[in-house]
Structures are given as structure tokens and as C-alpha cells.
Amino acid sequence: MYKDLQEFIDDVGQYDRLKVIEGADWDLELGLITELTLRKPDAPLVIFDRIKGYNAGYRVLSNLVASPRRVAMALGLPREAKGLELVKLLRTRIDRPFKPLPPVKVSTGPVKYHVHTGGDVDLWEFPVPKWHGLDGGRYIGTGDMVIQKDPDTGWVNLGTYRVQALDKNTAALHANPGHHGAEIARKYWERGQSCPVAVVCGQEPLLWTMACSNIQRGVSEYDYAGWLAGEPVEVVKGAAVDLPIPAHAEIVIEGEFISPEVETRVEGPFGEWWGYYGGKASPHPIIRVKAICHQKDPIIVGCPPMLPIDNDLARLIIDGAELWNDLDRHYPGIKGVWLAPEGRGGPMCIVSVQQQFPGHARHVATALASSVALHRWVIVVDDDIDPSNNAEVLWALGTRCEPANSIDIMEGFRTIASNPRVEPEKRSSRNFASSRALVYACKPYSWIKDFPPSVKSGPDALKKTEEKWAKELA
Ligand SMILES: Cc1cc2nc3c(=O)[nH]c(=O)nc-3n(C[C@H](O)[C@H](O)[C@H](O)COP(=O)(O)O)c2cc1C
Ligand SMILES: [Mn+2]
User: Fold this and answer.
1) Is 331-445 a CATH 2.40.40.10 domain?
2) Does the beta carbon of 341 sit less than 6 angstroms from any atom of ligand 1?
């Protein structure tokens, strides 16, 4: 695991692509530049410095894990791995009994270089970006981690939930129902208390990736990251709340997350991960900020939703690896699980199966559909198809799927308010349910042996020819 964000940035400068951009405006320009960089494959990591109206050193970073190379570096995988290979490598690494490796407490760390409390707290000290034109304000938390502790069990959860800066010591926090942070906050609120929170706005990428992946309920992302990396995360006690905060975090906002029965403020709208403004501006619970700790030259990590592709690929790799291992415990022949970034990840789940018995494809597809993740499409392909290769998947869809009898549609699954396709009537009655399509883009098992062979030449013939004609083909 990288010691801190700076160590990762240094490595990116050496082994991947890094761009430092000076003089851009926090008001939309950071978002526009980020969007332009994501149009090309292998987008660079971007650091904005000397942001308009702010001192040098107060930086914003985007595209933290937006290239396969940086995903591999962040997760400690071989740097040349790409696509499904990344999922395969990670799944092998986590295919062992989980042994929590809790964080170690240290007395202090670089995060405590500046500690602001009381009247000294000011969220506008930082160049908080307004990312997209229709956003309702400036978001300090997009590539963040919200730390909370379960009041009953002591479970420390880290989740990536967006945070809008509202005034110098007030922020709105948007944690969807079903997410661990919402569950923990509710426990405090039901007791008439507010929920202590610490929002980390800038962290090295491994722990951050755990915060935005579907780590099991009751498991601390700290313990999971430690287990995965083989070394514990170093933490210090917060300045105002009794929560462990990463000793090497860039910026940490600490405070009380207040019950919506006590106070709410309007949050949003925010250009969301689906790629739309699906949710509206609405009353949200707020954080009363008690303290802000930050490094000498602090960096906000921004991860605003972007088109055509998002910049948080690493979480799709870990979610895919977890799904693959889960399926593997129940079914043979699973050759790959891929959450396609172009389809926004979860909603576009592709699984490759070497079919071995009647109903095999349907069992696998229904297992994936019933996952709590938002898999709107589950596409089953055969084992000759790489699910992370869009050309191969489209070929399978175009040629092996007979729509009349290769699609199951199931209704009544969980979705969330930001889903742009929730009908207005359902939205007004807060019926956030959606359907799922299981698409069999694979050869029908009952006549799989009679399915026409493909025109693709065998690997041996291709290799031999490639060697013989190496010069001409170069
Ligand atoms: C960049 C990014 C932003 C996210 N924003 C939110 C958000 O605002 N609210 C939310 O509930 N989930 C959000 N998520 C999804 C959660 O982080 C994710 O589901 C994670 O598993 C939540 O942690 P938990 O399982 O501990 O609740 C976001 C994910 C990413 C990658
Ligand atoms: Mn969690």
C-alpha cells in the first residue's frame, strides 16, 4: 500500500501519466478539463494547482484511478495488467479466508500539520470545486471517505458519500439508504443523538477504493484494506471526534452528522454517477463541522461522475473480483465477471461461463440479478468471449442471442432515487424499484455442440503465422 497520496503521485509521474495544471478556476473549469482528459483512453492523473483565488499548494486532484495502469498500481497488481486480467489477479489474491488486519494507532501524523477548531474552521479555505454546470453548489467530498462507528458493535465503516460545502462550518452529506453509513447514522438518530463523522477528502488509492466498493456489512474497510495489502493502515485519533482517521490523509473534516428531524438544508442537485441529474435538490441532513485537520500542502481528491467514462475504475475491479469469487463457490465454469465502465459499472454486468449443464447460464444470471448491487443488465457470454472486450461482447449479442427466447425480465428490485429511469409516478410515491434483464448472449446449451463454429482461426495457427510473417506484420 502506498504510504500516502504523494508517494502514489510520484510513482504515477514515473510509470504512468501525470499532468499538473495551474491557474484553472474551481468554478466549472476543473470539471471541464477533467471531462476533456477522460475522452482519451489512459487519461492522465491531473493535479490542479494555483487554483483561481487560492494559494499555491492548495490542490485538487482528479482521475486518481482512471487508467488501467493506475488501477494496477493502486491495488498492488502487476503494472501491465488490463481489463479482465486485473479482475482475475485480484480475485486470486482475495480468494483466501478473510482475516481482518486492523489499523494501528500512532500518536500523530502529517494530517495533523494544521488543526483548525471552533471559529478557525472554514471549508472555503480549500478550493472546493463546482464540477458541473447544473450542480447546486461546491462539493468538497466526491473522492472522499466518510468514517463512522456503529454505536452497538464498534464497527468502523468507511464509505464514499458525496459532501456539499454549504457554509464555512456546515456541509450536507448524501448517503443512500442501504449503504452502511446511512444505517449507522440512523442508529444514533433513533437514540436522539447526532452521529460523529470524519470525512477524509484525499487519501492514497487503496483504502479509498475499499471505501467505494461493496465490502461486506460489519467489516471495516480499514481491516479489509490492511488484509488485502498485508500491512495495517496507520491511524490517529480525530481532533474533535473519537474516530480513527488515517495518519496520512490529506484533509479531514470532523463533526456531528445531525438528524434530519433536528435540521436539514437543501442539498444538490448534483450530476450523478448514472450520468444524469436524476435526483433533485432536496432537504438533507447536515454535518456541523467541529474541526478540520490537513497536511501542509493539502490535496482534495475529486471523483465527480463523468461522461463518457468515470474515473473510479478500481472499485469495478474489486467488485467484479468479489462477485466472481462468490459465483465460483456455487457454480463451475465461471471464466470472468466484468462490470462495464461504459455502462456505469453495476448496471452493466457481464459474465463469461463455460456451460456445463442445462440451466447453467440461467442459474448464474439469476444469482447475479439477486445481488443487492444495481445490475440492470446481466449478460451471459460463453467462455470464448472476454467480457471486458466490448467488440467480443457485442458480437455475442449480435449473433448468439435470440431475443424471443434469450431474455428473462424480472421486476421489483432495489434501485435508488438518482436512477434516471424511475417513472415520475413511481418517483412521487417513492417507489424506487426497477427491473432487471438477464440476457443470454451464449449458445443454447441444448444444442451447443451443433452451434456453427466461428471463423476465428485457432491460436496455434495464428501464432505460427505471426512468427513466420513477423516482419511484414510489424
Ligand atoms: C465516486 C463515488 C461517489 C459515490 N457517491 C455516493 C454518494 O454520494 N452516496 C452514496 O450513498 N453512495 C455513493 N457511492 C457509492 C458508495 O461509495 C458505495 O456503494 C460503497 O460501497 C458504500 O460504502 P458502504 O458499503 O460501506 O456503505 C459513490 C461511489 C463512488 C465511487
Ligand atoms: Mn461498508
Assistant:
1) no
2) no
pLDDT of residue 417: 87
Using CA atoms, how far residue 466 sits from 2, 456, 457, 459, 460, in Å, is: 40, 15, 12, 10, 10
Ramachandran area for residue 359 (φ above 0: left; ψ -120 to 50: alpha; else beta): left
User: In the chain, where are the structural domains located?
Assistant: 5-301, 331-445
Cβ–ligand 1 distance for 267 under 6 Å, the answer no
Locate 149 and state its grid cell.
462507528
Q: What is the pLDDT of residues 58-85, one digit of tens each?
A: 999 999 999 999 999 999 999 999 999 9
pLDDT averaged over the chain?
97
Residue bearing the CA closest to ligand 1, atom 12? 161
Nearest residue by C-alpha to atom 31 in ligand 1: 212
Q: Do domains 5-301 and 331-445 have the same CATH topology?
A: no
CATH of 5-301, picked from 2.30.110.10, 3.20.20.70, 1.20.210.10, 3.40.50.450, is: 2.30.110.10
The answer to whether the predicted template modeling score (pTM) of the entire model surpasses 0.90 is yes
Alpha-carbon distance of 223 to 99, in angstroms, equals 8
pLDDT per residue over 419-436, tens digit each?
999 999 998 998 989 999
Q: Is the CB of 344 under 6 A from ligand 1?
A: no
